[in-house]
Design goal:
single chain, 514 residues, mainly alpha, Growth Hormone, Chain: A, 21 helices, globular
Length: 514
């Protein structure tokens, strides 16, 4: 007898919310900057801390779900997500918003880690296939809808509404979950690797902070050096802890398999190259070109729209192609799209300059994303399939977090160099002007210029922002091309059917679009 679809509704609603909160903030950043007087670095952290918390806690959340109950942890995740969303919506300053976004990432990790185990425990046979198809479709829809929904809420309500809208949605998801989903657990004897989780979190956080601080304060700064050293020590500690664990977060022996190691690198670089530069493109569209939040959201939809169509329409066709070729080809398209964006964005360009490159990158994402997790599962032993799935999604989220940090640092440095070299701004005010341009306050730079120099100030804003976008798109493009060539050279194997069924020492997580 066909099971009720209410559990699917509860799980896909939570999945949609946690994924849409990755991109919904993009189109609101200029308004956040003005409303909270936030600096460029603060805006980076608003975007980055959510993905960083999600990446750092995803694998340990899977262990906690197996130990304490997946339904229970999903409900806890929803509650944490709702409370932190309220804190984001009421944040009086950038510091509180960043802290609340970190807690939001914690709730998202609990929700994400329990999504697919709950679906697998609730549905079987043909119903399971339908459930995962709907669940995967909401993942692609979240990527497409996020920027537009963020623009609509920001323009017609307030930027705080992008967080407050989560409250009624989480309430609905909790109500359906309590009434329709049964509890399930993993195999007995599961233990949480707290030392591994702690060292991994410190490593990821220290590295991200060091990369951001280095761009702001300089690479010889004491805080920069200290944070990078802490990250290195934490990485060594993680390796030592995991090597001695019977139930590690990540079996390091997997990384000695060339195919698995390359796939983890591909997951990280795909996410780092495909999505983070859209954050700075959103600032360009609004603060430099003067587009409304809704218009800015619509301007970046070619990527998500094409990837959603390709991923949905090409599923059966992709099953006939070796996953390494599909993933490698997708990465090459993502890289080419980023390089096209670099070539098209000039000081006098408008929003249409981004459309061809975004569509090309979207084609690559639509090819690469659906096979990424299945390729990782195929490269790991059956008894490590759940761990492999959790690892690839962790590397993906970590790639987004590090991409924001690295590309943001490069972008801000390039803008600062352009302002310094222009001679249009007095030396004593150059740093402040560069910070205002990169942080979404370009209109303040133009307004502060004497009337006779207003046109020169406006030209400087356009030139410096275009130079910054050009530089980060080139870096993103080269990274994706390198990853694509590496995958094509290393990842072997012919076309295959669905990935092997995971053995539940870890909760598996499925591929999603950012």
């Amino acid at each position: 007898m066909r099971r009720s679809w209410w559990p699917l509704a509860a799980i896909t609603l939570g999945n949609f919310m946690l994924l849409i909160d990755v991109t919904i903030v993009n189109t609101a950043l200029p308004q956040v900057a003005r409303g909270l007087d936030a600096s460029f670095t603060s805006l980076q952290w608003v975007m980055d801390i959510y993905a960083l918390a999600l990446a750092a806690l995803l694998m340990v959340a899977g262990s906690a779900a197996d130990l304490f109950g997946r339904r229970r942890l999903y409900l806890v995740g929803l509650a944490v997500f709702a409370i932190s969303s309220l804190a984001c919506g009421l944040a009086p300053d950038a510091g509180v918003l960043i802290a609340a976004r970190a807690v939001q990432g914690l709730g998202a990790a609990a929700m994400f880690a329990t999504n697919t185990p709950l679906l697998m425990a609730t549905y079987s046979g043909r119903d399971r296939g339908i459930a995962f198809g709907v669940w995967g479709g909401t993942s692609g829809a979240a990527a497409a809808v996020g920027p537009v929904l963020g623009g609509v809420l920001t323009e017609y309500v307030d930027w705080r509404a992008i967080f407050l809208v989560n409250l009624p949605l989480t309430a609905i998801a909790v109500w359906i979950t309590v009434r329709s989903i049964d509890e399930s657990r993993g195999v007995p004897g599961v233990r949480i690797d707290w030392p591994g989780a702690a060292s991994f979190t410190v490593c990821a956080g220290g590295l991200t902070y060091g990369l951001m601080r280095g761009g702001e304060e300089g690479w010889a700064d004491t805080g920069t050096v200290a944070s990078l050293v802490v990250a290195a020590i934490a990485l060594l500690a993680f390796a030592m802890v995991e090597r001695g664990k019977r139930q590690p977060l990540l079996d390091l022996a997997l990384l000695r398999r060339p195919t698995f190691a390359v796939l983890m690198a591909a997951a990280l670089l795909l996410q780092a190259a495909a999505f983070p530069y859209l954050t700075y493109a959103g600032l360009w569209l609004q603060s430099v070109l003067g587009m409304s939040p809704v218009q800015a959201g619509l301007a970046v939809t070619p990527m998500a729209g094409v990837s959603l169509v390709v991923g949905a329409a090409g599923g059966r066709l992709l099953e006939r192609v070796a996953p390494g070729r599909t993933l490698g080809g997708g990465l090459l398209l993502v890289g080419t799209g980023a390089l096209v964006n670099a070539a098209m964005v000039t000081p006098d360009a408008d929003w249409t300059a981004f459309a061809p490159g975004l569509a090309l990158a979207g084609l690559g994402i639509g090819l690469a994303m659906p096979v990424l997790v299945s390729a990782a599962l195929g490269s790991a032993p059956p008894e490590r399939a759940g761990m492999a799935s959790g690892a690839v999604n962790t590397f993906r989220q970590l790639g987004y977090a590090l991409g924001i940090a690295v590309l943001g640092t490069v972008f801000a440095t390039r803008v600062r160099d352009m302002v310094d070299d222009s001679g249009s701004v007095p030396a004593r005010a150059a740093g402040q002007a560069a910070e205002a341009i990169s942080g979404g306050h370009a209109d303040a730079v133009i307004a502060a210029a004497p009337p006779a120099r207003a046109d020169a100030a406006r030209a400087l804003v356009h030139e410096s922002f275009a130079a910054g976008l050009d530089r980060i798109c080139v870096i993103a493009g080269i990274a994706a091309l390198a990853a694509g060539l590496l995958v094509l050279a290393i990842v072997r194997g012919g076309p295959g059917g669905p990935p092997r069924k995971p053995t539940a020492e870890k909760s598996p997580t499925e591929p999603v679009h950012a």
